[in-house]
């Protein structure tokens, strides 16, 4: 059963076509990778799904809900969360506060309730703190809850960004180059964490990634983009041996890996 359907997505910036006629169907509970060379349109594709960009053409459906034209925060409320290629944490805020930012869509009291210090809002805030702490425990960062996010190591910041995305209670989680800058040990730990997140949070995962070892190991379905167009899709074995993909991205040594 599909959870996300994308049909004929196109995005232009002036005379440049960053994404052209991209379609895909993502099955509920699956792990899907979007790969391709730099400039292939991968992040533009994510930005359209998450409401950062409005597509010039095409449709995006989450279940039976159309997402085209919705603001990013409304799409988040409907169940899509993401991490970014370049980490976007609030560096001077604590680790705990960063995760609580991800919970804001689920705090019902609103600004006036917080300003008036309403008892029900105080209870809701305490529950949010507990949930944020639970997520930090899950990603192995609970001991740093009062540390400023900017003081964490690079790998820890990546895990914090994941915890913040999970705080939004997504149905679909988009990970933009989650292994970028990681050493082999951190990448192995990330692979295991992604598997666990899929199972424990009952979430569908779509990732952009250049680490082909990770992609081939973890993905059940792969979409390949080049110059803004989809040139191939299929399982890891199909993609590894696809002549178009080898020519555009993987290289001829891919068959030997």
TrEMBL record:
Keywords: ATP-binding, Nucleotide-binding, Transport. Pfam families: ABC_tran (PF00005), BCA_ABC_TP_C (PF12399). The keyword Transport applies. InterPro entries: AAA+_ATPase (IPR003593), ABC_AA/LPS_Transport (IPR051120), ABC_transporter-like_ATP-bd (IPR003439), BCA_ABC_TP_C (IPR032823), P-loop_NTPase (IPR027417). It comes from the Bacteria. GO terms for molecular function: ATP binding. The keyword 4Fe-4S does not apply. Residues 4-252 form the ABC transporter domain. PANTHER family: AMINO ACID ABC TRANSPORTER ATP-BINDING PROTEIN, CONSERVED COMPONENT OF ABC TRANSPORTER FOR NATURAL AMINO ACIDS-RELATED. This is ABC transporter ATP-binding protein. It comes from Ectobacillus funiculus. The lineage of its organism: Bacteria, Bacillati, Bacillota, Bacilli, Bacillales.
């Amino acid at each position: 059963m599909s959870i996300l359907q994308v049909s004929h997505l196109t995005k232009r910036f002036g005379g440049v076509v960053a994404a052209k006629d991209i379609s895909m169907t993502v099955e509920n509970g699956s792990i899907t990778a979007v790969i391709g060379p730099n400039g292939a349109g991968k992040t533009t594709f994510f930005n359209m799904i998450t409401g950062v960009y409005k597509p010039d053409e095409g449709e995006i459906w989450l279940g039976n809900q159309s997402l085209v034209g919705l603001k990013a925060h409304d799409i988040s409320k409907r169940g899509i969360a993401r991490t970014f290629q370049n980490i976007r944490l609030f560096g001077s805020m604590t680790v705990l506060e960063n995760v609580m930012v991800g919970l804001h869509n689920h705090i019902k009291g609103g600004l006036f309730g917080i300003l008036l210090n309403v008892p029900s809002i105080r209870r809701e805030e305490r529950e949010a703190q507990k949930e944020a702490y639970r997520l930090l425990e899950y990603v192995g960062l609970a001991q740093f809850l009062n540390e400023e996010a900017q003081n964490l190591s690079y790998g820890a910041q990546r895990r914090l960004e994941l915890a913040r995305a999970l705080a939004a209670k997504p149905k679909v989680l988009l990970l933009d180059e989650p292994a970028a800058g990681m050493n082999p040990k951190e990448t192995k730990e990330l692979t295991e964490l992604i598997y666990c997140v899929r199972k424990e949070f009952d979430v569908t995962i779509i990732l952009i990634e250049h680490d082909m070892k990770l992609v081939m190991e973890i993905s059940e379905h792969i979409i390949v983009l080049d110059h803004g167009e989809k040139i191939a899709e299929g399982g890891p074995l199909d993609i590894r041996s696809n002549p178009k993909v080898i020519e555009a991205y993987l290289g001829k040594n891919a068959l030997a890996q």
